[in-house]
UniProtKB/TrEMBL annotation:
It comes from the Bacteria. One of its GO terms (molecular function) is alanine dehydrogenase activity. The gene is ald. SMART domains: AlaDh_PNT_C (SM01002), AlaDh_PNT_N (SM01003). Its EC number is 1.4.1.1. InterPro entries: Ala_DH, Ala_DH/PNT_CS2, AlaDH/PNT_N, AlaDH/PNT_NAD(H)-bd, NAD(P)-bd_dom_sf. The keyword Oxidoreductase applies. This is Alanine dehydrogenase.
Length: 357
């Protein structure tokens, strides 16, 4: 199969779809890999690395799309890429269709095969291609939240870990999934007091078992959310419904109950966000303020640490890329139920239920 890797063109997105090691494995399996020049530079992988791994370097994104049967990306295609996508071409990337009608309509019109990383699902219900980026984003949520609590950036002026004689900051985490647990781990490591909410008691029991005593769990209800937002300094939204829009757990009217300078970090922004006041931002201009509450809603948080993120992503996507390349998408999806769940749009038809809602 002819596989293409283009340079990501979304704002401040420096990750790349495949590492040189991934290219090497595909070439070893007798596939042809086209890589756009400088595609990996932002992640620390240079053209010479890809050439040495067996890739064919092409100057433009247009050339890569034109020659490739499958495109392996990181982020969803943007408007500039829509006309380049061909009928029956496989696009394997994060799509998050539920948050963009424009993207959904464009991919329907292209009649391509859209396989979304975020809906590939194992037998046990885990999302293997979303997990590593959720791990990165969960950890970054605390890293960024701690920074934006600083007064020069309009935060409350609180050091999350506190110091002797001064109590630590308080972190409220909505969702005890991968994002929530990684955020709790980072916040606890800094010495913050952490409250994590979820509607799944099994998850809360797990958190209670593995986290230190200054991480406390509570069943998530509107009442408990309204209670805790009055006293917590950093609030992280990490709720995910696979392939569908995230629920709005914090509404606009709740902002008035928060202390001025409270920081909201919405890790669910790719799925529409779990705060009513969420609007996607970029690493170039990451925050905005509503009712004296700082919002950090960067849609590609892991893009800020592209070396780590690209390695973590290729670790999990490469086995699936190889299956598709070796067998073709139809046979690969027939034989692998987890990959089959990644099919979102096929030749102009929506085949994933979550997008229709």
């Amino acid at each position: 199969m002819k596989i293409g890797v283009t340079k990501e063109i979304k704002n401040n997105e420096s990750r790349v779809g495949l590492t040189p090691a991934g290219v090497f494995e595909l070439v070893k399996n007798k596939h042809t890999v086209y890589v756009q020049t400088s595609a990996g530079e932002g992640s620390g992988f240079f053209d010479s690395h890809y050439r040495d791994a067996g890739a064919i370097l092409l100057e433009t994104m247009h050339q890569v799309y034109a020659l490739s049967e499958m495109i392996v990306k990181v982020k969803e295609p943007i408007a500039e890429e829509y006309p380049l996508i061909k009928e029956n071409q496989i696009i394997f990337t994060y799509f998050h269709f539920a948050s963009s009608k424009e993207l959904t309509d464009a991919m329907i019109a292209s009649k391509s095969i859209c396989i979304a990383y975020e809906t590939v699902e194992d037998e046990d219900g885990t999302l293997p291609l979303l997990t590593p980026m959720s791990e990165v984003a969960g950890r970054m949520a605390i890293q960024q939240g701690a920074k934006y609590l600083e007064k020069p950036i309009k935060g409350r002026g609180i050091l999350l870990g506190g110091v002797p004689g001064v109590p630590p900051g308080k972190v409220l985490i909505l969702g005890a999934g991968v994002v929530g647990i990684q955020a709790a781990k980072m916040a606890a490591g800094l010495g913050a007091h952490v409250t994590i909410l979820d509607i799944n008691m099994k998850r809360l029991r797990y958190v209670n078992d593995v986290m230190p005593s200054h991480v406390v769990t509570e069943l998530s209800t509107e009442y408990t959310i309204r209670k805790h937002i009055k006293t917590h300094d950093l609030i992280v939204g990490g709720v995910l419904i696979p392939g569908a829009k995230a629920p709005k757990l914090i509404t606009r009217d709740m902002l008035k109950d928060m202390n001025p300078g409270t920081v909201l970090v919405d890790v669910a922004v790719d799925q529409g966000g779990c705060f009513e006041t969420t609007k996607a931002t970029t690493h170039e201009d990451p925050t905005y303020i509503i009712d004296d509450v700082v919002h950090y809603c960067v849609a590609n948080m892991p893009g800020a640490v592209p070396y780590t993120s690209t390695l973590a992503l290729t670790n999990v996507t490469l086995p699936y890329v190889l299956k598709i390349a070796n067998l073709g998408w139809e046979k690969a999806c027939e034989l692998n139920a987890d990959l089959r769940k990644g099919l979102n749009i096929v030749k102009g038809e929506i085949v994933y239920e979550g997008i229709r809602k």
